[in-house]
Amino acid sequence: MKQGIIVACLCLTLFVGLQGLANAGPKDDVQGSVDAILEILRNKTLPKEESRKKISEVIHARFDFEGMAQRTLATNWKSATVEQRRRFTDLFAEILEQTYMGRIEAYTDEKVEYGDVKTKGKSALVETSIVTSSVTIPIHYKLTQEGPEWKVYDVVIEEVSLVRNYRDTYREIVKKDGFDGLFAKMEEKISEMKSGREQG
Question: The domain that contains 171 carries what CATH number?
Fold first, then answer.
């Protein structure tokens, strides 16, 4: 049960950053964006595909996939060619979107509470919690400022970093099978997730 709740919460964590007011702080951007996503999820008149399309636009407009991809590959990013970097970023974005978009229906009107905000230069950490009737799940957003906007480059859920989690997994695959092996596994995963969504 708790795993399902966390999956639903992860949906929300990916969708940070819809519009954000000019010169708004990181907390304002997070809160405004989450509220906008909740509005989409609560609109039961929207066809499923239209709802997912709207949320997909939010993800690609505001989530720093390239920065996240670079942090995820870590030292392997330096050894990758330009084409390999581009391919990994595209596949990584697709995996994240398919993973959480495919679970969007798991959202059941949980409450979002906002906590402390820590800033240092152009970096920020915004603490939030997802509160349900049975559990409180801490979710921390790591953001970087790009012009007037703040973009998410990592999400820490119950002290587990999304970037670090993928980094550990992908490091072992690259070490064993190289980039071609990693891409093949990522493509296979995407195919499985798309098939599961279609059946759902």
Answer: 3.10.450.710
Distance between CA 152 and CA 154 in Å, rounded?
6
Q: Which residue segment(s) compose the domain that 125 sits in?
A: 2-199
Q: How far apart are the first and last CA of the chain?
A: 19
Structure tokens at 72: 């995820």
Main-chain phi, psi angles of 121, to 5 degrees: 65, -125
Amino acid at 74: A
Per the structure block, which two tokens stand in for 143?
A: 């953001």
**What CA–CA distance (Å, rounded) separates 192 from 33?**
29
Each residue's pLDDT, cut to its tens digit, for the chain (200 residues) gives: 444 445 455 555 544 434 333 457 899 888 877 777 778 888 889 898 898 888 788 777 778 999 999 999 999 999 999 999 999 999 999 988 776 565 555 666 678 899 999 999 999 999 998 887 888 888 888 999 998 889 989 888 888 888 998 999 999 999 999 999 999 999 999 999 888 766 65
Q: Quick check: 139 and 129 in contact, CB under 8 A? A: yes
Total tally of structural domains belonging to the chain: 1
Q: Where are the alpha helices (DSSP H) in 63-102?
A: 65-73, 75-79, 82-101
